[in-house]
Write a sequence for this structure.
């Protein structure tokens, strides 16, 4: 059968410089003229899981302890685990080799359910401020932390990974159907700060620097 | 052009840089830092506009846009407040509300007709007879009004928005505001400081009077501003007017962009844990005859013209003031070259001795207990009459400027819109804020403080109170700040005078609406005796200046005129926006956030015409024939593909998953077999159907179910809500966007599908209401269901969204030989209507339950013990024949279909049409309607009443349903 492609809901109007094919996805590693930041990266091909059970505290997905408090996140070995509420966590595979889907029925793969974006760079929170009233600079929250709230009026999960100068950045997911308008809104908000699309490599480098 | 000062430390202009602009078709030049109003003033313009009603000449009066006097049309946009608008190169400025020019307005004669237009004259005169009003209204609107805007005007510029968060928000960047911000910031808090003017400093900024220890107010403002700007945790928004304050300290404002900014105006909506309001005061206008004649201006305005913009307001200025700022302005302007023949001070005593000495040193005559009673001059002030307060003595002076001010009015807007109360204070003659909202504090001049040290101490205390709200300040620190505050001079005594001893025919309490004191008296005499009523009867305070001019004068005068022993009346209510701004600013960037399906672009390429349906954009048609005839016929006779990705899709799993489903669905889902599809419905507590869809059992305690597009967003909450008292262990995952859906429908659907799958999809192997999982091209995982919503052989293929494009193209390729075509939502709507399959919300409404719309067969009466939502109500309603019923109808004499929503009537309304179309499959018009129970019998004649039918009804008859393929063979073939 001819080559079957999987398509991300995000399409940047810039020319890719380097592409890798993974599990039927064409993953752009780098674009032409990515600039010096800030950057917007499409991570929609990266695996996301939902873990839901009444006994969440007993679970250790991929050997990682789930944070005890809703809103807290943990980043280990390229996996970001976000405690959403008493019974539910989201798991984002941010970097590293593909993960095996755990066998337990409590896990649901939700990679396809959302668009997955990273916004990185020093001015990331100035960009976020144009799209959301959520307080990313709240001193009472320690990175990484999760917000579940509106971003450009759309319900999102937004995880602040770092607030440290040029390492600053967030990853966000929202319903896949909003991908185009969400990307347009972010790029528009970031225009004045020089926000440009970038390939996955930027995220990989960023995650390894955290 | 006037000479400009360029040596003053307070100046904000750069006279070396000229800015060209066009006014009334001629080119003029302003200087960098000018507002439009100051640039015009520098070019000799004194009359900026004509007033709303009487077309009286109007000029520079205040400086912060408190009235409409200086509103003009700029670059085609009317009502621009030129006092607060930066001059930009190339601006085209026009006068507005004039016939001719502001200088020579042909409508100026109306000023003499004031006797014919008493307060409330619209109400009194123009409704007898009523037919006069439409004619009169047109003429009045021609004569009055403040500018015109084309309905298709496109607002130029970039409009932005931000939603910052902080610990403490300080509104007002004067000395109190800056001190408050510094106090809170020193406690480690994140502070936002909003200042309406383009720079910090407030009333200190333009004053050269001594602050303390030989430091001028201006120097102190610069010192504080530098401290603020170097404090990292204070974020300063200048040129940012506060426009609203709401519960939980939601503060709104708008910022005017500079050349360096990426926006023209930016809407700001911020959340703060605590708020300090340090908005200061404006001047309270002095009421006398012709008190708004060009050349009459407030003390602060005259002083700022000179000190900030380098313009001497005039050659000869008479002062009629009631506060020390007036004396200070007189001294300063005298020193800059203005001849000042006389200062009339309302106060008999209480003046600052230093200022008194300065006045005497300059040999300026000061009359205590005197006031201006009339400004003379047809278009501009030429002389002024002054009188002693008792009216016994009188003097007249020639002048070209009359500086007039009765006192001060605190700017309490942010507090009042957030529900603080105002109470009259006899010492300051202010209406002071009381009952402040939680975590909101007032500071500075608005509390009556005049002494610079007191103002700052007040700001410092408010800043610490805000820090205390954020749990970052100790009681001891607060105590110290309070002590420091108490050691400083208290609030200054305010002047009580409301109006000079005049009759008030041409004494204007509100400039925007041309409301005179005489009008206010007329209102009171007619029984409208409180400011809120006077405002509505006379118009005082209804103009674009947001009551900046009538403000506190209105309640003070109202109390005085009625000789009220105690001033319990209040100023009129102020509402957001406290400062008017553009609707474009409120609109902001305005991204339309609608969802697109995974094959949105493919359908657009195929000519799809999209419509917004709920949160989605969906292809409704695939041609400009909005009957969708070809799409419909292709599905009936051949094969079509529909993008059904918007359906809600969910996984529910866990030990109590079945319990949860049984709670919300009316059918008995314990009987679902693996490999089968169960169509069912959810009701609310009233038994009204809220959703329908299918449920599939994936495995033990593991189900996949679909919902209608409209309910997808609420399904998880709905199920959680209705199981909230159970300790059930189940998990719900919303997969709506994770799975795309392709509906492959039509008699040739199987032929297309079997070309792309390796499994047997014959009717025997994959029958109606069955479910299968398979892969297409060994790669694309598909959940497939045999359903029949459109009444034909159909496969509903659920596919991971990233594979949707691939599968869609594969099916399209496979279907080429069968001439497969897209069909849109409208075609689907007609196809399913012909089969009498309901769409909830279209064939149902709030009153209709499961039984009414013919879905009673879904209700399992044998299912007990699950407390299924809506079942109690359904049981009660089961024998009620009076309820609305869903019926099918055909039109008489092969007539056309009535419009959706048409009423069904006899001598009253008996129902309505849900969906009706001219059916190409049936060659006749058919439809479904909800009618009262007694009209639901087959054979009943229905009369349809449509919008604008002029009483001409069309008729149809209730018939058996479904219309198409009643035996249901086609979808089971």
């Amino acid at each position: 059968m001819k080559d079957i492609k999987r398509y991300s809901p995000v399409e940047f109007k810039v020319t890719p410089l380097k592409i890798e094919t993974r599990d039927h996805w064409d993953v752009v590693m780098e674009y032409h003229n990515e600039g010096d930041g800030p950057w917007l990266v499409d991570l929609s091909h990266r695996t996301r899981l939902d873990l839901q059970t009444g006994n969440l505290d007993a679970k250790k997905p991929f050997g990682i302890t789930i944070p005890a408090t809703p809103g807290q996140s943990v980043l280990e070995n390229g996996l970001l685990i976000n405690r959403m509420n008493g019974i539910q966590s989201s798991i984002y595979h941010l970097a590293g080799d593909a993960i095996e889907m755990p066998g337990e029925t409590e896990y649901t793969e939700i990679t396809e359910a959302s668009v997955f974006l990273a916004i990185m760079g020093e001015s990331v929170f100035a960009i976020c401020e144009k799209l959301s009233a959520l307080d990313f600079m709240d001193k009472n929250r320690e990175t990484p932390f999760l917000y579940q709230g509106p971003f450009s009026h759309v319900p999102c999960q937004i995880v602040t990974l770092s607030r440290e100068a040029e390492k600053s950045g967030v990853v966000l997911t929202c319903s896949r159907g909003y991908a185009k308008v969400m990307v347009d809104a972010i790029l528009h908000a970031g225009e004045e700060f020089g926000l440009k699309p970038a390939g996955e490599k930027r995220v990989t480098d960023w995650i390894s620097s955290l | 052009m006037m000479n400009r000062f360029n040596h003053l430390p307070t100046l904000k202009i750069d006279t070396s840089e000229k800015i060209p602009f066009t006014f009334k078709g001629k080119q003029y030049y302003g200087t960098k830092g000018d507002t439009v109003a100051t640039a015009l003033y520098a070019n000799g313009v004194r009359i900026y506009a004509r007033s709303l009603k009487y077309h009286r000449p109007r000029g520079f009066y205040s400086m912060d846009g408190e009235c409409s006097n200086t509103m003009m049309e700029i670059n085609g946009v009317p009502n621009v407040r030129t006092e607060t608008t930066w001059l930009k190169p190339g601006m085209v400025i026009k006068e507005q509300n004039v016939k001719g020019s502001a200088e020579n307005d042909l409508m100026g004669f109306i000023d003499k007709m004031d006797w014919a237009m008493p307060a409330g004259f619209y109400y009194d005169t123009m409704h007898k007879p009523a037919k006069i009003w439409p004619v009169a209204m047109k003429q009045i609107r021609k004569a009055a009004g403040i500018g015109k805007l084309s309905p298709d005007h496109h607002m130029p510029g970039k409009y932005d928005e931000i939603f910052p968060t902080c610990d403490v928000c300080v509104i007002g960047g004067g000395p109190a505001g800056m001190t408050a911000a510094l106090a809170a910031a020193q406690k480690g808090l994140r502070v936002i400081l909003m200042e309406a003017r383009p720079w910090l400093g407030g009333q200190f900024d333009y004053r050269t009077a001594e602050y303390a220890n030989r430091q001028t107010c201006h120097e102190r403002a610069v010192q504080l501003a530098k401290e603020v700007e170097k404090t990292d945790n204070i974020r300063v928004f200048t040129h940012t007017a506060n426009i609203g304050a709401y519960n939980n300290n939601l503060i709104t404002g708008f910022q005017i962009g500079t050349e360096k900014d990426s926006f023209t105006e930016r809407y700001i909506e911020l959340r703060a844990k605590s708020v300090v309001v340090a908005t200061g005061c404006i001047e309270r206008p002095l009421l006398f005859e012709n008190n708004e004649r060009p050349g009459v201006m407030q003390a602060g305005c005259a002083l700022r013209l000179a000190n900030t913009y380098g313009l001497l307001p005039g050659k000869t200025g008479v002062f009629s003031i009631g506060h020390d700022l007036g004396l200070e302005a007189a001294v300063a302007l005298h020193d800059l070259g203005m001849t000042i023949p006389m200062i009339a001070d309302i106060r008999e005593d209480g003046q600052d001795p230093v200022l008194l000495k300065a006045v005497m040193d300059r040999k300026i005559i000061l009359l205590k207990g005197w006031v201006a009673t009339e400004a003379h001059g047809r278009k501009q002030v030429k002389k002024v009459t002054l009188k002693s307060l008792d009216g016994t003595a009188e003097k007249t002076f020639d002048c070209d400027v009359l500086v007039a001010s009765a006192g001060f009015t605190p700017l309490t807007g942010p507090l009042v819109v957030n529900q603080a109360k105002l109470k009259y204070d006899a010492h300051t003659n202010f209406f002071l804020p009381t009952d402040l909202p939680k975590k909101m504090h007032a500071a500075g001049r608005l509390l009556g403080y005049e002494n610079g040290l007191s103002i700052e101490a007040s700001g410092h205390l408010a800043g610490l109170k805000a820090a205390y709200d954020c749990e970052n300040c100790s009681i001891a620190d607060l105590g110290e700040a309070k002590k420091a505050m108490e050691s400083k001079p208290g609030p200054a005594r305010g002047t009580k005078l409301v109006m000079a001893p005049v009759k008030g025919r041409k004494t204007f309490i509100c400039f925007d609406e041309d409301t005179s004191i005489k009008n206010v008296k007329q209102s009171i005499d007619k029984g409208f005796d409180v400011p809120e009523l006077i405002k509505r009867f006379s118009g005082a305070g209804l103009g674009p200046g947001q009551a900046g001019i009538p403000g506190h004068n209105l309640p003070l005068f109202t109390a005085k005129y009625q000789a009220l022993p105690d001033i319990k009346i209040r100023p009129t209510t102020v509402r957001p926006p406290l400062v008017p701004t553009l609707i474009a600013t409120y609109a902001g960037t305005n991204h339309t956030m609608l969802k697109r399906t995974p094959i949105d672009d493919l359908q657009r390429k195929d000519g799809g015409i999209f419509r917004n349906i709920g949160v989605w954009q969906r292809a409704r048609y695939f041609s400009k024939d909005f009957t969708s005839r070809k799409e419909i016929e292709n599905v009936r006779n051949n094969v079509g593909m529909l993008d059904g990705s918007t359906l809600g899709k969910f996984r529910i799993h866990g030990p109590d998953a079945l319990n949860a489903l049984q709670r919300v669905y009316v059918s008995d889902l314990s009987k679902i077999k693996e490999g089968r599809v169960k169509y069912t419905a959810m009701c609310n507590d009233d038994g009204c159907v809220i959703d329908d869809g299918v449920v599939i059992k994936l495995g033990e305690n593991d189900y996949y179910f679909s919902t209608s597009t409209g309910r997808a967003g609420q399904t998880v909450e709905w199920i959680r809500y209705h199981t909230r008292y159970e300790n059930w262990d189940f998990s719900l995952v919303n997969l709506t966007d994770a799975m795309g859906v392709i509906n492959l429908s039509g008699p040739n659907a199987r032929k297309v599908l079997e070309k792309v799958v390796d499994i047997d999809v014959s009717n025997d192997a994959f029958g109606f209401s069955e479910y299968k999982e398979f892969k297409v091209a060994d790669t694309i995982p598909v959940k497939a269901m045999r359903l029949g919503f459109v009444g034909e052989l159909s496969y509903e293929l659920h596919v991971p969204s990233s594979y949707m494009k691939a599968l869609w193209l594969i099916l399209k390729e496979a279907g080429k030989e069968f001439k497969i075509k897209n069909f849109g939502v409208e075609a689907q709507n007609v196809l399913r209507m012909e089969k009498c399959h309901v769409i909830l919300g279209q064939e149902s409404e709030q009153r209709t339950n499961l039984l009414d719309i013919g879905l009673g067969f879904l209700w399992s009466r044998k299912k007990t013990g699950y407390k299924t939502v809506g079942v109690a109500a359904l049981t009660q309603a089961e024998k009620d024949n009076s309820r609305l019923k869903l019926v099918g109808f055909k039109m008489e004499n092969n007539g056309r279909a009535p419009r959706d929503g048409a009423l069904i009537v006899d001598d009253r309304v008996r129902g309505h049409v849900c969906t009706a179309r001219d059916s190409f499959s049936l060659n006749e018009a058919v439809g479904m309607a909800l009618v009262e129970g007694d009209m639901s019998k087959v054979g009943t004649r229905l009369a349809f009443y449509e919008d604008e039918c002029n009483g001409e009804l069309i008729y149809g008859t209730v018939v058996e349903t479904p219309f198409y393929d009643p035996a249901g063979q086609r979808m089971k073939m």
About this structure: Chain B has a mean pLDDT of 94. The longest strand of chain B covers residues 265-277. Chain B touches chain A through 49 residues (CB under 8 Å).
